[in-house]
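Risk register update: the risk of archive-format incompatibility is retired. Evidence:
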Amino acid sequence: MCRWRSWRRPPAHPRTRRRPGRTARPGEPAIEEFEYRRHRTASLIAALDVLTGEVLTEVIARNDAVTFTAFLDQLDAIIAPGQEIHMVLDNGSSHTAKHTKKWLATHPRWTVHWTPPHASWLNQIELYFSAMTRRVLRHGDFSSRDDLIDKLDVYVTGRNESAKPYKWTYDGTPLKTT
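Archived output:
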């Protein structure tokens, strides 16, 4: 059984702050400039090995079924032949397109597990993207699209060097509502 999970992250927007911020000082909070200049966007697709926590990423030009299946082709080539591959996907248009369904029909070792609507948090790659957003994107200052991509690559490389699997505790029991 393969351990890779795939997901496309919404585009990250490279931006440059109009004025520099200020770091926190004793008794004073940090100040971050709210105005910024936006540069072009970068979309990222990723696959997570749930046994090791390692992530394979690629910057993509388009989020469509052709791009998605090309990424799956790359995964198919690096994963040992004969090994079953299970992936968790949401219902994004590139995942449910006819082209993708046709690709999956011709690759029987691939099994798709669909997250329920509005439950993408069940997909472990979302945890990875959440951490990436907090550590790289949210307060980032990027001089260009290439600068953004470089900083994402540095994060991915560093994270993979110390990767650990996520401790998954959801057992399928519906959450209690009060």
